UniProtKB/TrEMBL annotation:
<keyword id="KW-0358">Heparin-binding</keyword>
<feature type="domain" description="R-spondin Fu-CRD">
    <location>
        <begin position="9"/>
        <end position="110"/>
    </location>
</feature>
<keyword id="KW-0732">Signal</keyword>
<protein>
    <recommendedName>
        <fullName>R-spondin-2</fullName>
    </recommendedName>
</protein>
<feature type="compositionally biased region" description="Basic residues">
    <location>
        <begin position="172"/>
        <end position="189"/>
    </location>
</feature>
<keyword id="KW-0325">Glycoprotein</keyword>
<keyword id="KW-0879">Wnt signaling pathway</keyword>
<keyword id="KW-0217">Developmental protein</keyword>
<dbReference type="InterPro" id="IPR044004">
    <property type="entry name" value="TSP1_spondin_dom"/>
</dbReference>
<dbReference type="InterPro" id="IPR043601">
    <property type="entry name" value="Rspo_Fu-CRD_dom"/>
</dbReference>
<feature type="region of interest" description="Disordered">
    <location>
        <begin position="172"/>
        <end position="210"/>
    </location>
</feature>
<keyword id="KW-0964">Secreted</keyword>
<dbReference type="Pfam" id="PF19028">
    <property type="entry name" value="TSP1_spondin"/>
</dbReference>
<comment type="similarity">
    <text>Belongs to the R-spondin family.</text>
</comment>
<dbReference type="InterPro" id="IPR036383">
    <property type="entry name" value="TSP1_rpt_sf"/>
</dbReference>
<keyword id="KW-0716">Sensory transduction</keyword>
<dbReference type="InterPro" id="IPR006212">
    <property type="entry name" value="Furin_repeat"/>
</dbReference>
């Protein structure tokens, strides 16, 4: 860059031929730009991405944000806007929101989510409101919503779930057995009667032939 009316010296109070701006005009921020092995000073109205404006009595400067994956920050330890693909939460940037917080996609922020309690014990295994008379049934467990989300658009996780279970008593004491069991016994009895009848016919035919 050439010393004098060159754009590199725009806004400078003092400018060096080799190093660019050394001091900036009032309200502008001094930014030390690095390009390979070379670095030179610039005077800017606002600091570039990854930096924030630090005002001091001596000279306003662009200071680097110390928050990882931060695009712009309020101070070195508080990010106001994260890089693309990251969610902002309490001045930090996250790939996914911490536990207890939900992602607000339109703002790329983490807000308080729906808080639920612990799961209850599994309930009694039953089917059709009966705890006997079937081989398999369902058991259910639940949990309570402890805190509702700040935004109505954020759904709560499931508060009830069921799973298949084997009943402790397949046959109800003192009750009738299921119709399916009766049908099986009846079918077996008919087969026995038919077998006995066929055997009797065979014996009668054998005696006649003799």
């Amino acid at each position: 860059a050439n010393y004098g009316p060159n754009p590199i010296c725009k806004g400078c109070l003092s400018c060096s031929k080799d190093n660019g701006c050394i001091r900036c005009q009032h309200k502008l921020f001094f930014f030390l730009r690095r390009e390979g092995m070379r670095q030179y000073g610039e005077c800017l109205h606002s600091c570039p991405s990854g930096y924030y404006g630090l005002r001091t009595p001596d000279m306003n400067r662009c200071s680097r944000c110390r928050i990882e994956n931060c695009d712009s920050c309020f101070s070195r330890d508080f990010c106001t806007k994260c890089k693309t693909g990251f969610y902002s939460h309490r001045g930090r940037c996250f790939r996914g929101c911490p536990a207890g917080f939900a992602a607000l996609e339109e703002l790329m922020e983490c807000v308080e989510g729906c808080e639920v309690g612990q799961w209850s014990e599994w309930g009694t295994c039953s089917r059709n409101n009966k705890t006997c008379g079937f081989k398999w049934g369902l058991e259910t467990r639940t949990r309570q919503i402890v805190k509702k989300p700040a935004k109505d658009t954020i759904p709560c996780p499931t508060i009830a779930e069921s799973r298949r279970c084997k009943m402790a008593m397949r046959h109800c004491p003192g009750g009738k057995r299921p119709a399916k069991t009766k049908d099986k016994k009846k079918k077996k009895k008919n087969l026995m009667e038919r077998a006995q009848k066929q055997h009797s016919i065979f014996l009668a035919t054998d005696k006649t032939s003799q």
